[in-house]
Design a protein that fits this description.
about 150 residues, 5-stranded antiparallel β-sheet, disordered N terminus
Length: about 150
């Protein structure tokens, strides 16, 4: 399903799109971690975590690179980043980009369902529960709207 070269973005706009996509994927939070046990919940991004309350004196706020252990929740976001790249080149259509964006938001929900149902002997959930924050899906939607207004598919 290759689109014509006329449907790709100019190099300047493509650079802006990729930089914004990297920021959305790596810096913006992808979910809110709900902890049913004694630990804190908080916002999670690929490169940082912000717990609801201070858990260690040396980390009074944002804790960098602690959320890397939750890769299963955000791994597909890297696929979406690749899809955004292909979309900006005109190699995939809007519908496919939106499907990737939607799947990236559904994965944390689908993984969290068993986490909410099964608890260990201490009353903590086996799998962390993540409530998705759809920044990436919104970015994909805005990108497809921009392309539909300024380019023909």
């Amino acid at each position: 399903m290759k689109m014509g070269t006329n449907s790709s973005f100019t190099s300047g706009i493509m650079s802006i799109i990729i930089v914004l996509a990297i920021i959305v994927v790596f810096i913006f939070p992808y979910g809110y971690h709900v902890d049913l046990g004694p630990g804190p919940g908080g916002f999670m991004a690929i490169t940082w975590e912000l717990p609801e309350f201070q858990i260690l004196p040396e980390y009074p706020g944002i804790m960098p690179f602690t959320a890397l252990e939750y890769f299963i929740y955000y791994l597909y976001r890297l696929v979406v980043l690749n899809a955004i790249w292909k979309f900006s080149l005109g190699k995939i259509k809007s519908k496919r980009l939106m499907t990737h964006g939607l799947v990236s938001e559904l994965i944390p929900i689908l993984i969290s369902i068993p986490g909410a149902l099964f608890l260990n002997s201490e009353g903590e959930n086996f799998i962390p529960i993540m409530i998705p924050i759809p920044f990436l899906l919104l970015f994909c939607a805005l990108l497809t709207l921009y392309k539909s207004k300024h380019h023909q598919e």
